[in-house]
């Protein structure tokens, strides 16, 4: 007579068996899910597509860039394939969802990408093994992602990029004014080329074909060119079509250069991550006037960036974004506000008013009703494109057909208001880092080298105009520029040069 297992015990054993089976199924499903997400991530990273866009669609995209700047990519060819969208400025240099793992995007100096591949291929095979190289590249990337095989310096994968921001990185100790897009890594170079191919603002300007045949302008010559050919202009009440609007009285009656300044010393404080732990706060606050950008705060960062704010230059994106609370935040109520929005290359105000990137005029009216006494100016689009032309004229390659960054625009603005201008961390110091902003934890090399803005070329121009030493750049990230009022170009040797350009 066999031993009979009680019914209650059988129920417990059956329940335990079912739980174990469900656990095994759950583990298998989780493993499949992780592998699927790793493959999706790898595919998106290779094609510069946000993972959120690939999964949830365009509406899940963050508001880091105007929708009008989006590039459409058809992933499955033509003929009914569904377009997916990518924001090139946001993606190069960052692994989606992991701000602590930047993708290096600049090849080291004197380093050939092709020769580097050939030189390292044999060593990599020995390191990885034959089985690794028999796998397809997407599967290799997925395995690396799952098992943590990517090292910090290998994040660029097959692009052959070297580490950029380390002590021995490709940027070197001090910014080289001969930097070009050919030095960019595969990923960011592709993004820059996409922007160079775009022409949203109707730019009609001769390319750099003749630049190679012109003599390179010296620093003083370049300063005179910008002084004579870039006019700092803001909107006023008497400009058409605004003079006919009921809210025209909210616009200033005079130009900003007539109302503000002159100042003796001015500080242009970038929002770069390299300002973190810089200890430059007291030096910055010692200036007569300080300009800051967009949503860069001072509270909690006084030791590194100071607390004084004389002018704040903001783009229309910040004004329109709910995340920045433009209408309610006290951050914007201190000092003089100056805003800008990318206008058409023709600088036609009527065309611009009817087709802004963001609702700058609507937000301007709302803010003026709340703060009628605070000075608030809007930059004329002519200023943006005059400055862009100076950049293109002094480069031997085609730059992005998009307006310059707020950083360069604010620098030229302060040069028109001040005798001496010190620009902090526009050119990175020895503290150079992948961190985009000193007040955030987002890492992207494009914040230093540019994607939407021609930032790479802007830095080349600023480096050429610098009157300070390379040591100041290396230790403090400080560039010294003279104000326009301090030098006279009418009787200098630059007159002939200017007439030729």
From TrEMBL:
Sequence intervals crossing the membrane: 26-43
Entries under InterPro entries matching the protein: Glyco_trans_29, GT29-like_sf
Segments forming a coiled coil: none
Keyword Transmembrane: yes
Keyword annotations: Disulfide bond, Glycoprotein, Glycosyltransferase, Golgi apparatus, Membrane, Secreted, Signal-anchor, Transferase, Transmembrane, Transmembrane helix
Single GO biological process annotation from the record: protein N-linked glycosylation via asparagine
Family membership noted in the UniProt record: Belongs to the glycosyltransferase 29 family.
Name of the featured protein: Beta-galactoside alpha-2,6-sialyltransferase 1
Source organism per UniProt: Cyprinus carpio
């Amino acid at each position: 007579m066999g031993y009979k297992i009680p019914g209650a015990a059988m129920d417990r054993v059956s329940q335990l068996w079912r739980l174990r089976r469900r656990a095994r199924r759950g583990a298998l499903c989780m493993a499949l899910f992780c592998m699927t997400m790793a493959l999706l991530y790898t595919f998106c990273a290779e094609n510069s597509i946000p993972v959120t866009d690939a999964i949830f669609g365009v509406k899940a995209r963050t508001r880091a860039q105007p929708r009008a700047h989006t590039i459409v990519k058809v992933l499955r060819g033509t003929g009914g394939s569904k377009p997916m969208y990518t924001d090139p400025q946001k993606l190069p240099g960052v692994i989606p969802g992991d701000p602590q793992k930047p993708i290096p995007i600049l090849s080291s100096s004197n380093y050939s990408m092709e020769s580097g591949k050939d030189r390292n291929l044999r060593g990599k095979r020995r390191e990885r093994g034959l089985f690794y190289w028999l796998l397809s590249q997407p599967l290799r990337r997925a395995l690396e992602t799952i098992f943590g095989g990517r090292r910090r310096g290998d994040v660029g994968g097959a692009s052959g990029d070297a580490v950029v921001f380390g002590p021995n990185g490709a940027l070197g100790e001090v910014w080289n004014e001969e930097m070009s897009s050919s030095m960019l890594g595969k990923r960011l170079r592709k993004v820059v080329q996409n922007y160079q191919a775009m022409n949203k603002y109707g730019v009609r300007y001769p390319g750099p074909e003749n630049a190679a045949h012109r003599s390179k302008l010296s620093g003083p010559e370049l300063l005179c060119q910008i002084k004579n050919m870039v006019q700092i202009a803001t909107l006023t009440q008497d400009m058409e079509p605004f003079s006919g609007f009921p809210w025209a009285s909210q616009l200033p009656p005079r130009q900003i250069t007539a109302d503000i300044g002159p100042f003796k010393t001015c500080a242009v404080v970038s929002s770069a991550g390299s300002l973190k732990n810089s200890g430059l706060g007291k030096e910055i606050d010692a200036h007569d006037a300080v300009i800051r950008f967009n949503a860069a705060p001072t509270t909690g960062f006084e030791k590194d960036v100071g607390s004084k704010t004389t002018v704040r230059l903001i783009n229309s994106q910040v004004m329109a974004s709910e995340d920045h609370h433009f209408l309610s935040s006290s951050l914007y109520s201190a000092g003089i506000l100056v805003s800008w929005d990318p206008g058409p290359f023709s600088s036609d105000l009527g065309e611009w008013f009817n087709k802004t990137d963001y609702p700058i005029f609507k937000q301007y009216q709302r803010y003026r009703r709340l703060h009628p006494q605070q000075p608030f100016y809007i930059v004329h689009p002519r200023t943006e494109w005059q400055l862009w032309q100076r950049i293109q004229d002094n480069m031997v390659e085609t730059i992005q057909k998009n307006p310059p960054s707020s950083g360069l625009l604010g620098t030229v603005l302060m040069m028109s208001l001040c005798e001496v201008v010190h620009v902090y961390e526009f050119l990175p110091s020895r503290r150079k880092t992948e961190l985009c902003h000193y007040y955030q934890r987002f890492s992207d090399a494009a914040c230093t080298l540019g994607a939407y803005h021609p930032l790479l070329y802007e830095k080349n121009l600023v480096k050429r105009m610098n009157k300070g030493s390379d040591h100041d750049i290396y230790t403090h990230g400080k560039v010294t520029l003279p104000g326009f009022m301090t030098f006279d170009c009418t009787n200098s040797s630059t007159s002939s040069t200017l007439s030729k350009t």
